[in-house]
Amino acid sequence: MRNAVYDKTSSLEEKLEYFCAHNPGKEAAVRRILEFIRSTPDCFERTHAAGHITGSAWLLNPAGNKVLMTLHRKLKRWLQPGGHADGQSETLAVALREAEEESGIRGILPVSEDIFDVDIHLIPARPGEPEHFHYDIRYLLRAPHEQFVISEESDALAWWSAADFANRRRETDEAVLRMAAIVPGIKK
Asked: What is d(CA 32, CA 161) in angstroms, rounded to the nearest whole number?
């Protein structure tokens, strides 16, 4: 993956347009996210009840042959680290923050500043929180080591290899499996 022609001052909209132009098959999701951003002034706030922008980390180990997965405490599924933007429009910074908070790993760096993947998924209603959408912007990151600390947001953390993704398909979702198929060394 190479760095895009945009710079750090480029807007999320520009980064999404670049991602769309270079990732056939993702056009519908990107267009939906762009429409959401353009029509929703508070799209980066979790208080927007219908949905909000989130940032996620596809976090590789130093060798690049494993991905850190979290058994999400609320959703009870193995997912990549990630979370709410909480007003932050720089989604790479959100992904880095969430990866660090959920893993306890310091010194995580982007493999690329390009968007790695996007996904729109429905979050089920819970007490005090209605059903809503997460418009998730995902980045490929690398950890400097494999020692993690489980946060209160997770029931467990684990480094998954390609074999783990193949053997544990029922424990995660299709978007996670799609990302696993993209990364060299993680391919099934």
From this structure: 32
The stretches in the chain having pLDDT less than 50 are 1-9, 187-188
How many angstroms separate the Cα of 37 from the Cα of each of 13, 48, 103, 136? Answer: 8, 12, 29, 12
d(CA 22, CA 26): 9
Cβ atoms within 10 Å, residue 66: 21
Domains and CATH numbers, the chain: 12-182 (3.90.79.10)
- What is the per-residue DSSP string for 64-101? SS-EEEEEETTT-SEE-SEEE-TT---HHHHHHHHHHH
DSSP 8-state assignment for residue 145: -
